[in-house]
Amino acid sequence: MSVDSSTERFTGGLAARPRRRPDRRWLTLVPLLAVLILLFVVPLFSLLIDSFRSEQGFTLENYREQVTSPVFWRAIRRTLVIAAISTGICVVLGYLMAYALTRMPKRLRGVLMVVVLVPYFTSILIRSYAWIAILAPGGLVARTLALVGIDSPPDLVFNQTGVLIGTVQILLPLALLPIYSVMSGIDRASVRAAQSLGASPAVAHWHVYRPATSSAVMASAALVFISSLGFYVTPALLGGPGDALIAQSILVQFSNLVDPAGAAAQAVLLLLIVLMLFVVLFRYLAPSLSVESTGSATPRRGRRADTTERRENLRALRARILDSGLDAVGRLRLPILVCGWIVGAALLATPLVVVAIWSFSDATYLTFPPEEYSTRWFADYFTDEAWIGSTFLSLGIASASAVISVVIGGFGAFGLVRGPKRPRLPIAILVAMPLIVPPMIYSLGFFILVAPHDVVGTNLGLIMPYVVLGLPFAVSITAAALRNLDQRLENAARSLGAGSLSVLRHVLLPALRPALISGFVFAFLAAFDDVVVATFMSGPTAVTLPLRMFQDIKLEVSPRTAVVAVVLLGAGAAAVLLRFVMAWLVRAVRVALSRRGAS
Amino acid sequence: MKFSRKTVLGAVAAVSTLLATAACGSGDSDTSGATTSAGQVIVPDPGGDLGKAMKKAFFDPFEKKTGIDVVLSSGEFDAAVVLAGVKAGAPAYDMLNVNGAVLQRFRDGAAIEPIDYAQWQNGARDKIAPVKAADDAVPAYYISIVPAWSTAKLGDKGLTSWADFWNVDKFPGKRTLAPGSWGAGGATFEIAAMAAGVAPKDLYPIDYDKVFASLDRLKPNLVKFWETGAEPIQLLTGGQVTGTSAWNGRVAGAQDKGVPVASTWNQSILQYDNWTILKGAKNAANAQKLLAFMMEAQPQADFANAITYSPANSAAFDLLSADRAAKLPTSPDNVASAVTQNYEWWTAKAPGSDKSNEEVAIERWQAWASK
């Protein structure tokens, strides 16, 4: 079942060559582990020790207090339920949207990609205010429903529904992009082959296409689930009086009770609960943690041979039912895909439309629709050095840390998937940790560790933790793609005399490009969208854009942060447009040149 | 051509270091270079109207007078974050305004320095009233938490008490309050007690059973708890609530901008912040100078003219017009119908516990709110 044995079996002589040299592929794990241990484990560990320390020495009091508190367990239960539901919605919608994307013409894909990334262009705070304007009584939804005669719309905000809508909007891209990056690399020839052999489209999809995407689906689900556990602002603004989640509970412990040890204890317990969940779900989640390769890329052996005849019959029956169900779904596939995109795009883009309209508001508060329009908030932004400075600071820091994350994480993913098998599970868990640990706890540990060394308020002080936060994305997305990549390609290249660098350049990089790009995008956004780390590490001088937006709207709700969203959105759209114009130009030049050559 | 993996890794390491240093280099040039020979002092920027008022009344005149740069930091001034910084030997600010109940945490954490009153104008310290200046902290300004409402929905003659606030039959619409997880900060415990008919003089010790029974009655009409000082006005403006608790300066600021909101001084809860100088502050000497300047009567009066928060130096009232004084929380008429928040009770140890009253209140609140 291991990658190595299957390689040997299927590649025969090709595998022999790398075997002659000692396998040093594990070396690619070194930078990843070094970064994670130095910049993540050490700071966290120093905080952990604090949670066991009292004036009298070792104590479990902080833990006893939390474990015996019904408040803690209620928050945990609510958090897990919200996380599970939003993960389900995100993955289903993300899968449909990603699949639809792969079947679209390339140009349309670029435009829709902007829609997918749209949620990242503005502060989480103003997005939440936009949701309130949309969902609250008298808001956009209620007014639209009133037009069709529904006068008492359901309560959509200041309750768990509001929290769910806000959470799904933020995490949908995170579900979609990893799935898309794997889907776009799948050769559709095998699906067509299955169809030519008589399988209906949906059946062909289920049996041929879906297995190839399952590891990406699991990676997405794990990413979404884990990320949602740390959500603070969304439940605080969109939830009702009794909807506090665990991150809010940790914050109250930390900020209001000024009890970092108690906050750390809550975080540790959350961590343990999540790890236990993962152990229970291990069989299903294993691929996403790159522990075992279970995708269709590697052939299965072993246990299947022992199954009894009866179980085989049962399986056949189940398959028949499944196939007839799939046939029904297959006939509806177009409406399903279209609906998926309509719902998804509405979730992703509506708040941004509201924010965009706000940016042209003349009011000092966020009234929707605005009574008067002006561009005064744009003038305000572009003439304010502090805002412009923060914008460039954030762009620079997020790019630098994302590049480092992708390079270190890319090599790490290679070592994880192609390297020795035994340490995979512990390393995979370590890589996922920065996502599970609430950012507040990690930031606090990191801050306490580095504060005496004059890095607070410097770019380095911000880049270091952002590299750590970007790594889970870079590693898991690259690893998912790498597992779907046939190792024989690498071995073939090597047997033909290619060195490691050539294999990297000519085999791995081209094949992994979509994954590396989406890894970069997420590592970039993890840094570009962060408020918590910046709270600790910005100091008075290096105030990042999200922190400035957060503070600004926290202190004075005004359309100013809406302007930032529109400016960033404009820049993003311009970049996409530029790419198309460039591609068109290159093609035009090529055509012209070839004509000249022909004549 | 063959490269060993070590070469590749080396190259990668080199590139990433290069990128990191390049990025750092460019950033540093942006942020430094603002200091002059007189040095600087780093203070938190509270933002909004309060930030503008401080800048106008205190920081700009001080810069002009002394040449010392006042660096406004828009970072987070969450008490726990600041305390972590002090503990790590790297406070984010030189001086800080902290809420009356939070001050005790700074004292417990040995996080503040004594104030150098020798630098103050003669007699200025004695003019600090009604709360006296302490050796390590001086009241910064007085603010009130008031019942506020949307005049668009409830008209000009709106709420007159917290009992009215609870009365949704007479004053229809949803409500919002500050979360009690802030302890004394949002005054929600006092508000709920007064709504249940507790007389101002009997507020302390807080009767938790009465408070939570009172909140249970309001809960069906309570859409959420507000999280930031700007949120109540936003919720009133957006029409999501018709009544809220809010800081008086926020309401006055919104009125100045033409927002249809109003408030009453009746049963308002008077709070105050303290200026403190943080232990380990890099510019402690400049911070002492700035503090001495801020507490002079004239800047205090300028401050109260810029925002409707009361000056801490009572001599400033001599420089204010009668009209302006009437809009401030500590003017005689307003303070007569107000309750001064009892920080002494909030920071005292709860009976039979090693926790403060505030800690106990927060824990009881969490238990109630999570139900």
Descriptive report:
- Chain A is mainly alpha-helical.
- Helix content of chain A is 75%, strand content 1%.
- Chain A has 28 helices and two strands.
- Chain A has a two-stranded antiparallel sheet with strand order 1-2.
- The radius of gyration of chain A is 25 Å and the shape is globular.
- Chain B has 371 residues and is an alpha/beta fold.
- Chain B has two domains: 40-141 and 272-332, Periplasmic binding protein-like II (D-Maltodextrin-Binding Protein, domain 2), CATH 3.40.190.10; 143-270 and 342-369, D-Maltodextrin-Binding Protein, domain 2 (3-Layer(aba) Sandwich), CATH 3.40.190.10.
- Chain B has helices spanning 5-31, 48-66, 79-87, 103-108, 151-154, 162-166, 188-195, 208-218, 231-238, 248-256, 284-294, 297-306, 322-326, 332-336, 343-347, 357-369; strands spanning 40-44, 69-73, 95-99, 112-113, 138-150, 175-177, 222-225, 243-247, 261-263, 269-278, 310-311, 339-340.
- Chains A and B meet through α5, α7, α13, α20 and α22 of A and α1, α2, β2, α3 and β7 of B.
Write the layout of secondary structure elements.
The complex is a heterodimer of chains A (599) and B (371).
Chain A: H1 3-11, H2 16-20, H3 30-51, E1 53-54, E2 57-58, H4 61-67, H5 70-102, H6 106-117, H7 124-135, H8 140-147, H9 160-183, H10 189-196, H11 201-229, H12 233-238, H13 246-256, H14 260-280, H15 282-285, H16 303-306, H17 309-331, H18 333-359, H19 376-382, H20 385-418, H21 424-436, H22 439-450, H23 459-483, H24 487-495, H25 500-528, H26 532-537, H27 545-555, H28 560-598
Antiparallel strand pairs in A: 1-2
Helix pairs in contact in A: 3-14, 3-20, 3-22, 3-23, 4-14, 5-9, 5-11, 5-18, 6-28, 7-9, 7-18, 9-11, 9-25, 10-11, 11-17, 11-23, 13-14, 18-28, 20-23, 20-25, 21-23, 23-25, 24-25
Chain B: H1 5-31, E1 40-44, H2 48-66, E2 69-73, H3 79-87, E3 95-99, H4 103-108, E4 112-113, E5 138-150, H5 151-154, H6 162-166, E6 175-177, H7 188-195, H8 208-218, E7 222-225, H9 231-238, E8 243-247, H10 248-256, E9 261-263, E10 269-278, H11 284-294, H12 297-306, E11 310-311, H13 322-326, H14 332-336, E12 339-340, H15 343-347, H16 357-369
Parallel strand pairs in B: 1-2, 6-7, 6-8, 10-12
Antiparallel strand pairs in B: 3-10, 4-10, 5-8, 5-9, 5-10, 5-11
